[in-house]
Amino acid sequence: MIDTVVVQPAVDTGEPSVAGVSWAAVTAGAIVSCALTLVLIAFGIGLGLSVVSPWAGSGISATTFKIGTGLYLVVIAMLSSSIGGYIAGRLRSRWIGVHTDEVYFRDTAHGFIAWAFASVLGAILLASPASSLLGGAASGATQGTASMARSGPMEGYVDTLLRSDAPAAPNADNSRDSRGEMVRLFSNSFRNGGELKPADSQYVAKVVAARTGLSQADADKRVNEVVTQIKADTDAARKATAQLAFWLTASLLIGAFCASLAATEGGGLRDGTWGNRARATPALR
Fold first, then answer.
1. Is the sign of the CA dihedral 207, 213, 215, 221 positive or negative?
2. With contact defined as beta carbons under 8 Å apart, do 266 and 88 qualify?
3. Sign of the CA dihedral with 146 first, then 152, 154, and 155 last
4. Average pLDDT over the chain, rounded to whole?
5. How many CB atoms lie within 10 A of CB 238?
6. How wide is the angle at C-alpha 62 spanned by C-alphas 48 and 235, nearest 5°?
7. CA 99, CA 78: separation in Å to the nearest integer?
8. CA nearest 25: which of 270, 258, 281, 276?
9. Could you report how far apart the first and last alpha carbons of the chain are, in Å?
10. Which of 11, 99, 208, 259 is positioned for an S-S bond with 81, CB 3.0–4.6 A?
């Protein structure tokens, strides 16, 4: 008996052989978007719109961050994301036999993926200079606890506390020790929105009176004034940081929208169908 082998005909699933994502086009759009972002950021720094300072302890504050800076971040996101998304859509491969709505979705996805890739790549590139700056500062720091204390952000406040109208010539070792102690005390007290405890405030006033020759009442007044200034500066920096986070979030969301929209335009021009997308008459390409 002879067995017969029945060969089933291949079933056409209707799926095109071309991949749904053109990674080369996505990568090209992301790189262009990231490069334009760096160029526009450098241009903004030249215009004085920078919110980051290379000096230790000089970061974002209420005076360095302005609404114009946030608006410029949005402009950067719109320009760079739109151009990157357009390139991603224009350079992608053409899909044969794909529904019109599916082509529109894929173009939108190409723009969104290019924006996401550019955002991650830009974050890595912008983090590298900051890491190098921190590494250089750490390697160039002098040895010793006193030297480390002098590089802290509370040094200016301690200078105000220990200022004297008729300064004597204090012992160098005692002066260094008291300054380091004050810096550590203020740093620990005001960290994470804390306050100076009453006992610490009384101790600080005694040290100020002994170092500056002020009366105890004047020393208490100076301590209260400096503490008030620290709270005001800390609150202003916290508000500026919140504003920066808000503008960054807004610029990222707007950038994602612009990239997706521009990719649909680029894809439509690639296929010669831009402006003629008829949803009521679905046609196969």
1. negative
2. yes
3. positive
4. 75
5. 13
6. 160
7. 29
8. 270
9. 50
10. 259
